[in-house]
Design brief:
4 domains; Helix Hairpins; 529 residues; alpha+beta; 16% strand; single chain; 51% helix; five-stranded antiparallel sheet; elongated
Length: 529
């Protein structure tokens, strides 16, 4: 019983540990949490620096004000000394101030009541080496009547020399002031002993308690210690809430994206209002989905067209074999074999063309970077074409042109364009090859019906036949120009078609390829008749 209880407790602890781990990973990986933490840290650091600066500035300002007050009281007492009269105890308007008047020997002549009977606030060595009005920071006893516990203060020392000496009797005006202050109960005053005169210098020492500085700073510190954490909590919660609202469209976009599959590429993700980054992301994803939809549709058409193209020779071959097998004695097997070989060659051509286009779609149609004399290829292919057609092939405008590429693929370009021109011309095909600075241009012109302007962009698509009356067995597969375009673009060139302006009708196919050496000056070749 005890073992089973321990086992259950252990499983509970393991489950709790896994739950805590999942919770921690979830929150640690949350952008909302990371953003909230980052905002809280940044605001906390900024507020802490600002608070320290505020405390420092406030403390410095209050201390400076206290020093100014102490210097003012010292100057007032010095004025009484110079008049030859001084009251003992010295009356001061503030209870956080204390004052002493000492002579050059360190003897206390007069003092305020709150420091009466104490030793000089500053030793004579410090007084003699200190500049006038330089404040001392010292630890001092309580100045208040009841004791305020303050032990920090600032002392201002002011040296004074009396020209008249100190008198024991006060004038009537000062006596009235002393009497009024005495009646107010602030301090008790008495006159100096008679005969106390001196020509020696005197020092006025005014002690200012820092209690008036420490208490506001302490109160400000308590307020900051309470307010800053509360502010950081508000910042964290506000950031968490606002980022949640900001990322709400992202959750909708993620939900929409999860529902899009291969059969639903026509769907689009939610686009929030506005022109912020999230809306831009949604529009970018929709443009990507449009491209994927077009690519998938193109692939489906490609597969369907390829299947249809392969089906024709396979069906023809299968039908010929089935008929021959039904009447084996009456079949010319040599003719059947030749027809089957022709169909198999046609299938091989289609498969090779499809392989080139598949490599182009996958971005794997690589070409060599070898120097190729394009004029040699043009002459060779023209010679071959002349042997198979009665049309005139004109090479009078073929000059030298060298490019970087793969000879066999470039030969395929020339052959496809030349066969296409021979197939559609009425009587003549003209070849033009020129090199102009940075490019080599190949032009193939025919005097046929030409390509309608509306179809010139479609003619390089796959399985396109503008001449619908032409059968598959009597011509190409509709892949020649598509393959030509892929090879030209793989060589860094471009191809287009326009009207043959020389005869007013027909087609003019133009291929531009980068030249191997733009500084080469080409020479015209002799016409081959």
């Amino acid at each position: 019983m005890e073992l089973s209880t321990l086992s259950r407790l252990e499983r509970l602890q393991q489950g709790s540990g896994r739950f805590k781990g999942l919770l921690l990973r979830h929150f640690a990986g949350s952008v909302r949490v990371r953003t909230s933490i980052a905002a809280t840290v940044v605001v906390g650091a900024a507020v802490a620096v600002a608070s320290l600066g505020l405390v420092h500035v406030l403390s410095s300002q209050l201390t400076q004000n206290l020093v100014v007050t102490a210097r003012s009281e010292a100057a007032s007492i010095a004025t009484l000394i110079r008049s030859g009269e001084i009251a003992n105890p010295i009356p001061l308007p503030r209870g956080d101030l204390g004052a002493q008047v000492v002579d050059s020997k360190g003897a206390i002549i007069a003092s305020t009541e709150n420091v009466a009977g104490r030793r000089p606030l500053i030793g004579m060595n410090d007084l003699e080496t200190t500049m006038p009005n330089t404040p001392f920071r010292v630890s001092v006893p309580d100045l208040g009547a009841g004791g305020d516990g303050d032990t920090r203060g600032i002392i201002v020392a002011l040296p004074v020399t009396s020209g008249e000496g100190l008198a024991t009797n006060l004038d009537p005006a000062f006596s009235s002031l002393v009497s009024a202050q005495s009646k107010a109960g602030i301090i008790q005053l008495s006159s100096l002993p008679s005969g106390a005169t001196s020509k020696s210098p005197y020092y006025v020492l005014v002690l200012a308690s820092l209690q008036g500085v420490d208490e506001p700073i302490r109160a400000l510190g308590v307020s900051l210690l309470v307010g800053i954490p509360l502010l950081l909590v508000i910042v964290a919660l506000a950031t968490f809430y606002l980022t949640g609202r900001a990322f709400k469209p992202v959750e909708q976009i993620m939900s929409d994206a999860d529902e899009i599959g291969g059969s639903s590429l026509h769907n689009r993700v939610f686009v929030p209002e506005g022109k912020d980054e999230i809306a831009s992301l949604a529009r970018t994803m929709n443009r990507m989905l449009s491209r994927l939809e077009e690519s998938a549709e193109s692939s489906r058409r490609f597969v369907a067209d390829a299947s249809h193209e392969l089906k024709s020779p396979i069906s023809a071959l299968q039908t010929a074999l089935e008929v021959s097998l039904l009447r084996p004695d009456q079949t010319d097997w040599k003719s059947v074999a030749l027809d089957g070989l022709a169909e198999s060659q046609r299938m091989q051509t289609i498969v090779e063309d499809l392989l080139i286009l598949a490599k182009d779609d996958a971005g794997q149609l690589k070409v060599g970077r070898n120097p190729v004399d394009l004029d040699d290829i043009v002459i060779e292919e023209a010679t071959r074409a002349r042997s198979t057609t009665g049309s005139r092939i004109e090479l009078a405008e073929v000059s030298g042109g060298r490019v970087l590429g793969e000879p066999e693929k470039l030969r395929s370009v020339v052959r496809n364009l030349m066969e296409n021109a021979v197939r559609h011309c009425e009587s003549q095909v003209s070849i033009v090859l020129t090199q102009r600075d940075f490019s080599v241009r190949l032009e193939v012109l025919d005097d046929g019906r030409g390509v309608p302007e509306a179809d010139r962009a479609l003619i390089f698509d796959r399985f396109v036949r503008l001449d619908q009356s032409r059968s598959r067995s009597g011509g190409g597969t509709g892949l020649g120009l598509a393959i030509t375009k892929s090879i030209v673009e793989a060589h860094g060139g471009r191809i287009w078609v326009e009207e043959n302006q020389r005869v007013g009708h027909g087609a003019r196919f133009v291929v531009e390829l980068p030249a191997e050496d733009p500084t080469v000056v080409t020479a015209h070749l002799e016409s081959i008749s």
